[in-house]
Amino acid sequence: DVVLFFLFLYNLFVLLLYNLRRIKIMREKIYIFDTTLRDGEQSPGASLTPQEKLKIALQLEKLGVDIIEAGFPISSSGDFEGVELVAKHIKKCQVAALARAKKIDIETAAKALKKAKYPRIHTFIATSDIHIKYKLNMTKNEVLETAVEAVKFARKFTDNIEFSCEDAARSDIDFLCKIIEEVIKAGATVINIPDTVGYAIPNEFGKLISEIKNRVPNIDKCIISVHCHNDLGLAVANSISAIINGARQVECTINGIGERAGNASLEEIVMIIKTRKDNELLKNFYTNINTKEIYPTSKLVSTLTGIPVQPNKSIVGKNAFRHEAGIHQDGILKKRQTYEIIKPQDVGVPSSELVLGKHSGRHALKKRLEELGYK
Length: 375
Description:
This protein is an alpha/beta fold. The protein is 44% helix and 14% strand. The protein is built from 13 helices and 12 strands. The protein has helices at 2-26, 50-63, 77-89, 103-112, 129-136, 140-154, 173-186, 202-215, 235-244, 266-275, 294-305, 326-334, 362-371; strands at 28-29, 31-34, 67-71, 94-100, 119-126, 161-166, 190-195, 223-228, 249-252, 285-286, 322-323, 353-354.
């Protein structure tokens, strides 16, 4: 009987272990690469001191992002100091520094990251025909050689190397796959596919990620990342399409700030993944973001950059959880989910708000009078 009992326990343990492994395999993590301190700060009018960068970085660490891109060290002494300061104090996240595919950039980035617990060098070169011809004035072979040499050189400082194919969305697919294959051979561990000018639409960007995944023979040796801009208002949609098609890192910013029309918004991507667990294509993905820190982070970034959040901005805008129309107010009072798919407290907003205006109805007026002590 004792032998049978222990045999039963053993089988139970094996069964439990098997199911846990299945659950782990089914759930796939999406790494959140926050570039608020680099691309976000490149927004016209935004400028952060090293101490302000550190303040935001500490809040991003509290938020739970996986990688903080702290800046572009070669660009100025102030940016170098900011990256160095963030690298010194951040202990839970990876800290990345941007560098062109040039030795001087990479050396400067490595120096700024010297005190980082988990450093990452993020190097890049343009791969689209228009950039190669008019901006770089190089041949494709020269671009390929430069990229490979940059990754090999960066590997002298850290094993954590991200390579970006700037303007990938407008690049020739054959050349794109070739350069990705070669930089992986050279030691890149993350391959970033940017839609640098926000040109792509979701189905074609998703197809691009799928094609890269299927055509690059050694793609399984790295993580596919995406960095989408919002020039046509599709940065978040393109990022989600990329995730569905194989990307496992998303580069984004708080409040969607960044060059020109901005970047993919961190809060939108995270809450889409969290809210749409009913969707067959998204149900197995998760992030490590503590969503209750989203609103405080948004307010901090807005205050320090001086860039206000538009009232109708999703998730963090002033009106995201405010209701004035009488029909909506009546629905909210009866059942919050009638007009709110996200609980405000889940993103750090204290509560919904019923605004009294010309569109309001009697139910909201009655509730407000009761709150004031009248019947």
